[in-house]
């Protein structure tokens, strides 16, 4: 939900409550004010009639539908003005109506008169109607302005915010440029912008450091590792006993392993750094074919039953070197973890690359093999980075890797979107 | 064959020199660009082994230098900077080959010999070792005038052995030489064993001596002194 919509909803709700309460108040005030004014008016009328009686007008001649004069015993004390609601016959409308009745007594010439005067009151429904209509109109006008504000006003106010968002979206480590956001007169946005600028600068610095570190690391380890390898190769050529040979072999293999790990990690780092841009689609079919051909001897050695179904012009947007790494990795895995006389099926088309192979079934969820240093068999000599490289490649080029077990076969599918 | 090694790590240089010297290759060494240019102006080399990360600059500058001075020498780049860009740039700028560090010394020797064959001998070379002769242009092997029926990989393997004769070659080095970088992921080296076995069998069947010896579990040695 957009912020402005949320604000509008809240604002509308609050306004509705305020208008409702205000309406109630106005209604009450109206009602009491009308009653008060009406009472005063009736009082004046009654006084006027009393004066007329005093000046000799016969009381019983004055009476009409609004006026009621009654003689009451003289001994009774004088009655103060007394107002009450009543239903009485209203002549002009020819029906009983809600009326306000005011009565008061006067002692004139030794007689005690109670004079009551009626007048029609403004009905509550009428007041309610007026108040509701007024409040509703106010509400509508407010809504109109609010709509106007959200359409135009908010766009104008939030424009710098959207600009900032656009800039963040286009922020890229490869470009190596920190964010430069325009000055802003709104304090909050200015704060946000300066914070983002600082953060982007820091991110780039950290990124550069990590990148340099991983590059240096691979260089710094590879050089001594190359020296170790050379020395061991020299040692192999000396007069050595079998025992020594085994030690050399073991040291040599461990050194090779270090090498492999460093190389794989540096490959992962490069992929994470989004190196290897892929400007155009390339056809994977010749690469798959070439790699399978290169593995012929290994396939024959394990007596694997190979079936391939490779569709030409199966294009994917990927860097050619990385495509080779990806396919090499997958096919290597399918051969390495295969069993003697096992199966290897490779299928490539426009939508996917599917590699099926027999092999020991894993105890855990095969998807976990995509994690770093995750191995099916802890004793195996593999370092467990092959599939995480596959995963990283897929992430880099928007491909989807799926690893399943189907019909007792390992099935690794790479979906091209 | 005379080469110049431009490498700033003395241990690595020493490794290379002691391996190559035994193969009748005359090695001179420098540790920076400045000395390298000095040497290149004064002497003639068949090949340069060039490291890219040098204390006084990028080794790629040497390629420009060679071009500008119109020197006729081959260049083999060795670099730990395993980046694709450098590899492509190096080959574009006229390097003959690129060997990422760390490499097997046997591989370095094989590459140097291959460059030498390509540039000085026009790619064709008759390697003769006792009764075995290899023709690198035809990819053909004869044992006492019998033509051997070898696969491309077996031929490469034999050439690799003869190039590195009298040396112990590790199984890893063989695997990498024949299948490239990624096969070292194939943890067991049965396939190397299988290939060597096939090659030995074919040579023996053609009446050749079995020169290839197993050295404990480490690897193999092409031993000319076999009786």
TrEMBL record, chain A:
Its EC number is 2.7.13.3. Pfam families: HATPase_c, HisKA. GO terms for molecular function: phosphorelay sensor kinase activity. Keywords: Kinase, Membrane, Phosphoprotein, Transferase, Transmembrane, Transmembrane helix. The keyword Membrane applies. Residues 216-417 form the Histidine kinase domain. This is histidine kinase.
Automatic annotation (TrEMBL), chain B:
The modification 4-aspartylphosphate is found at residue 51. The keyword Transport does not apply. GO terms for molecular function: phosphorelay response regulator activity; transcription cis-regulatory region binding. Transmembrane segments: none annotated. It holds the Pfam family Trans_reg_C. Residues 124-224 bind DNA. PROSITE patterns: OMPR_PHOB, RESPONSE_REGULATORY. GO terms for biological process: regulation of DNA-templated transcription. This is DNA-binding response regulator, OmpR family, contains REC and winged-helix (WHTH) domain. InterPro entries: CheY-like_superfamily, OmpR/PhoB-type_DNA-bd, Sig_transdc_resp-reg_receiver, WalR-like, WH-like_DNA-bd_sf. PANTHER family: REGULATOR OF RPOS. GO terms for cellular component: cytosol; protein-DNA complex. Gene3D superfamilies: 3.40.50.2300, 6.10.250.690, Winged helix-like DNA-binding domain superfamily/Winged helix DNA-binding domain (1.10.10.10). Coiled coil: none annotated. Residues 2-116 form the Response regulatory domain. Keywords: DNA-binding, Phosphoprotein, Transcription, Transcription regulation, Two-component regulatory system. Residues 124-224 form the OmpR/PhoB-type domain. CDD domains: trans_reg_C.
